Recover the amino acids of this structure.
C-alpha cells in the first residue's frame, strides 16, 4: 500500500529576476524523510522557502493535506515549521520562551520530549539563556529541537548538520530515523551530499 501524499507540488517553478532556479518540479511527499540534495547554489534554500510559502513560485501549485497555498495561505502555513538558521528574529527570547512561541503556533507541541531533546543536543547547560548568547551551532540546535517537538505536518530543515558537533549529528540522525517510520509528518532536509547516516524515503536531486 502506498502512503498518502501530505505535501504536493505540481509544476512548481521559481526564478530570481536574473535567473531560473528550478522549473516544473512536481512532488508528492508522503510521511517520512525527504532529502533535497544539491551542490553550492543549486537552489536548496530557495526550494525550501518556496515550499514554506516565504518565496512566491513563478508557476505551479502547492498543497499540504489538500490545503492549497494559493487558496488558503494562512491554513497552509500553519502546517509548516521552518526557521531560517541565520535569523536573528528570536535573539531576545530565552530558550524556554522560544519553545513557548513554537507551542503557541503548534498546539500538538510535545513538552514531554524537551528534556531528551535538550540532552541529546547538549543544550542542557544553555537551557535558560537568551538566544543571542548562544553559539551559531547551539542556536541551530534550539531551532531543531523546536522542530522535533512542534508536531507540524511539514518540517523543513535547511542543512541541519551545519555547525553541529558529531554527537549532535548522530542524535539528529537518530531522531530523523524515528520520524522516517511515522505516518503523519513530512521531514524535508537539505544537504550538499546525501549523508550516509540518514535513510531517506525520497530524494529530490537538484544536481551539482
Ligand atoms: N535573493 C537572491 N537574489 C538573486 N539570486 C539569489 C538570491 N538568493 C540566492 N540566489 C541565487 O540563487 C541560486 C540558488 O541559491 P540557494 O541559496 O537557493 O541555493 P543553495 O543550494 O541553498 O546554495 P548553498 O548550498 O550555497 O547555500 C544561487 O545561484 C544563488 O546565488
Amino acid at each position: 500500500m502506498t502512503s498518502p501524499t501530505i505535501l504536493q507540488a505540481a509544476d512548481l517553478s521559481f526564478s530570481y529576476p536574473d535567473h531560473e532556479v528550478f522549473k516544473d518540479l512536481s512532488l508528492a511527499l508522503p510521511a517520512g524523510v525527504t532529502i533535497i540534495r544539491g551542490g553550492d547554489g543549486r537552489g536548496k534554500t530557495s526550494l525550501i522557502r518556496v515550499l514554506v510559502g516565504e518565496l512566491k513560485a513563478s508557476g505551479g501549485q502547492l498543497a499540504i493535506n489538500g490545503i492549497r497555498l494559493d487558496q488558503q495561505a494562512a491554513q497552509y502555513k500553519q502546517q509548516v515549521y521552518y526557521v531560517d538558521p541565520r535569523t536573528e528574529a528570536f535573539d531576545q527570547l530565552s530558550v524556554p520562551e522560544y519553545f513557548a512561541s513554537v507551542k503557541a503556533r503548534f498546539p500538538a507541541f510535545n513538552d514531554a520530549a524537551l528534556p531528551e531533546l535538550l540532552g541529546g543536543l547538549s543544550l542542557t547547560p544553555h537551557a535558560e539563556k537568551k538566544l543571542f548568547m548562544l553559539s551559531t551551532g547551539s542556536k541551530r540546535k534550539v531551532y531543531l529541537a523546536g522542530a522535533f517537538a512542534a508536531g507540524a505536518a511539514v518540517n523543513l530543515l535547511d542543512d541541519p548538520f551545519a555547525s553541529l558537533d558529531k554527537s549532535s549529528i548522530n542524535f539528529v540522525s537518530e531522531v530523523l530515523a524515528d520520524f522516517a517510520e511515522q505516518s503523519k509528518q513530512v521531514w524535508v532536509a537539505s544537504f550538499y551530499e546525501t549523508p550516509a547516516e540518514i535513510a531517506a524515503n525520497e530524494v529530490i536531486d537538484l544536481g551539482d
About this structure: The chain has a mean pLDDT of 96.
